[in-house]
Amino acid sequence: MLGRDYSDQICSISRSLEVVGERWTLLILRDVLLGRHRFDEFVESLGVTRTVLTQRLRLLVDEGVLERRPYQQRPERFDYDLTDKGRALTPVIAHLLWWGDHYYPEPAGPPRLLQHRDCGGPVEPRFFCGQCQAELTAGDIVAQPGPGLSAHSLTRDHGTTSRSGAAGSLTPPV
Hints:
Blueprint: H1 12-20, H2 25-33, H3 39-46, H4 50-62, E1 66-72, E2 77-82, H5 84-87, H6 90-103, E3 127-128, E4 135-136, E5 142-143, E6 168-169
């Protein structure tokens, strides 16, 4: 697991992994998306220890990904639900689902199918250009230095730029 000191990394991915990159965290978020909201439901569904679950839930609440609401006074018990910040992870979880279905398929087919609530149509993974609205593939996307990348970090290779300072492609190596 990555440390929490980013003095030498200017990287949104590494900061994001500190919140959602620990084992069990994305599975907890998956369970919330599937309608599970209570501690005991997570324990039963995931088989995670109570201690680990407590730590992960605390982090997700502290980071504003989940909100905790009491539903019982004695003993005190809580529901966990996604915040706007947590709901913004839905496409990330959906892409992991599709990736897993493609590269690690179940013999009987996908365990879950994502469908549009209103019409029942299949949800499809797509990227679009914010300017011309063209549908994009991984080969169409390049990473350019953004305003948060300091001049100092342009000389270092964190997967954002090449050693020459040119933009790096997000296309996987062939």
